[in-house]
Amino acid sequence: MASQASLLLQKQLKDLCKHPVDGFSAGLVDDKNIFEWSVTIIGPPDTLYEGGFFNAIMTFPQNYPNSPPTVRFTSDMWHPNVYSDGRVCISILHPPGDDPSGYELASERWTPVHTLPPQMNLARSQLQCYGEIVYSFDGHDLLGECSRRDKPIERLKSVVTWYISTLRPLIFGLAPYNPVIGETHHVSNGHINVLVEQISHHPPVSALHATHEKENVDVLFCQYFTPKFRGAYVEVEVKGRRVVKLLNHKETYEMNQPKLLMAFLPAMGAHWAGKIVIKCPETGLAAELQLLADSFLSRFTGNNKRAIKGKIFESSSRKQLYDIFGHWDRTVTAKNTKTGQLEVIYKASENIAKLKTPIVKNLQEVSESESAVVWGEVSEGIMTNDWEKAREAKRDVEEKQRESLRKREASGQSWIPKHFSVARAGKDWDCVPLQPTVPQAPIVIPL
């Protein structure tokens, strides 16, 4: 009889062959031995390894995934975490538990949660994570502040500040649930009402609409992901549209989203990286921000300092008005290029240090499609370490989605989102909310 480890490895290899990733391939060294894989990594572009083909052997233990595989390069490889005999030495491949030498944290070493659901899940849906970056804050109402400022340049600075506040630290090895189609998340915090809906499952596309009742601000996200394997890390491009409208000023702020990098060698880690552009056509002002993790050194050392730098400028003349610099998880400063005056525009300790958990204000009005309802039993199992309960509940959620899909396909029906109209051109998605404002939600952030 096949062991649990061999069945899992067969499934993972089959999934990898069915859904190949750029720059990586895998197969068996011996067709009769599922526990030994031959892998090839193509050197990532814009690195010292570009153009190279690096072969390695991954050997899985009989008690996988409770214990980690070993990795040994059979090609010549120069890297600080690769020994002269080709063996790879990184924290994630070290046995679970405390490090006897005290050098590594237990959380940095191998645990089964790196491979198996539901242990690899955070007790929340991805839709909840999207909503939290808008409604979950402690202290000043940064979204409302965007509209309260009198001058266009001050409003753009406030939009930049609000955008920085939406960047939240990531936890490598733990991920939220993948939302099911039709799942929603509806929460209010003061004057801010947020509604998120999963409008597609294959590919996964999420739409968010938020409105600020008092300051007449409208926020719209439509986003989806394109992952690319780069050898030692995975680069996830977040595509779609982000728009903030200050309706009292008839201004629209268009912005893109940073990339997500998940590094494996030599140290594991997940962080935001890349260039962010925010522009307002009505005022002719724009901002460019660079998250300073997208470099060769940080990719291969795991040294992510969450630094940010950028500028605010006039779009037509490119005349620079402000320098932006700091760390998005600590403090960010703006420097007036004309006067040299410094202004701290963002302090993470004042905005996201003491976040509050949403509470149910009116249970009767909570929708059956609400994330907390859909995933409630899964979350309860995870939080009580009842993994069998969590597995069963997660299988139930996923089977309901598959059954719903089978019924739609049998009847020739397409899924129609409840809160958004959807437009698709090739691989690009866009959405428009069906209602001009988001109503007060039955789930709220306590005062």
Task: Report what the structure shows.
InterPro entries: Oxysterol-bd (IPR000648), Oxysterol-bd_CS (IPR018494), UBC (IPR000608), UBQ-conjugating_AS (IPR023313). It comes from Arabidopsis suecica. Keywords: Lipid transport, Lipid-binding, Transport. There is one protein chain. By secondary structure, this protein is α+β, with helices and mostly antiparallel strands. The protein is 21% helix and 36% strand. The protein has two domains: 4-114, Ubiquitin Conjugating Enzyme (Roll); 121-369 and 429-444, Porin (Beta Barrel), CATH 2.40.160.120. It has helices at residues 4-18, 126-135, 142-148, 152-165, 296-301, 348-351, 371-374, 376-383, 387-411; strands at 24-30, 33-42, 53-59, 70-73, 121-125, 175-177, 184-189, 192-200, 205-212, 217-229, 233-246, 251-255, 259-263, 269-280, 285-291, 307-314, 320-327, 331-336, 342-347, 359-360, 420-425, 428-433, 443-444. A hairpin with a 5-residue loop joins strand 16 (307-314) and strand 17 (320-327). Helix 3 (142-148) packs antiparallel against helix 4 and helix 8 (376-383) runs antiparallel to helix 9 (387-411). The longest helix is centred in the C-terminal third of the chain and has 25 residues, at 387-411. It is globular. 33% of the residues are buried. Residues 112-120 and 294-304 have low confidence and may be disordered.
